[in-house]
Design goal:
It is a single chain. It is globular and about 50 Å long. By secondary structure, it is mostly helical. It has ten helices and no strands.
Length: 201
């Protein structure tokens, strides 16, 4: 399974050359640290899916001595590993530009990435190849653009929910959010495994 995770980096050697300039661009443009961590985390896993979709790699993977369960596990474990590495590199880049950030920024960025991955990873195996990468990228851009108005709407119209959230201690809030996000990720992992096992290549 480790070799499947390592394959993603080997296949994307050229793409990785633009990874750091990509992060620098967002820093120079003054993006929020949480958004920078989110974008950095998305880079490798979603490039891998886009490459596999274009090259129809799943046909090759299924001819190798790996079970379909192991192939999906490598995607989800690899996404966690690349998220950690990407956040580390993004943190160093922010420090190099003297841009302040906090643990909260890292928590928000990684949490949003895990949620986005949980909702989109199954789609790569559910829908026809050639379209899903475009749909996912457009969805990401729309969610990024609309996140501000959505939060404002919730604050103004769903005061019962926001009052309850603000009544919680910071530690309890973080633990609750982490539990919900990890649950979504685990459920997504299971759903994707079922979809992939039933798919014909």
């Amino acid at each position: 399974m480790f070799n499947l995770i390592r394959r993603d980096v080997i296949l994307q050697k050229r793409q990785l050359l633009i990874f750091i300039p990509f992060i620098f661009f967002f820093i120079i443009m003054g993006a929020q640290p949480a958004l920078i961590f989110l974008v950095a985390s998305i880079f490798i896993p979603f490039n891998t899916y886009a490459y596999d979709e274009k090259a129809e790699t799943n046909i090759l993977l299924n001819s190798l001595p790996y079970t379909r369960r192991e192939i999906i596990a490598s995607r989800y474990l690899g996404a966690l590993l690349y998220m950690i590495l990407s956040i580390g590199i993004a943190s160093l880049a922010l420090l190099a530009f003297n841009k302040p950030f906090s643990i909260t920024d890292i928590a928000i960025g990684s949490g949003l990435f895990l949620l986005f991955a949980a909702f989109t990873f199954p789609l790569f195996h559910l829908f026809k190849s050639g379209y899903i990468t475009t749909v996912v990228l457009i969805s990401f851009l729309l969610l990024t653009y609309l996140s501000g108005p959505i939060v404002s709407f919730i604050n103004e119209n769903l005061t019962v929910i926001t009052d309850f959230i603000f009544s919680l201690s910071t530690q309890l809030l973080y633990m609750g959010a982490a539990a919900v996000i990890l649950t979504f990720y685990a459920v997504s992992w299971g759903v994707t495994t079922v979809i992939y096992q039933r798919k014909a290549f």
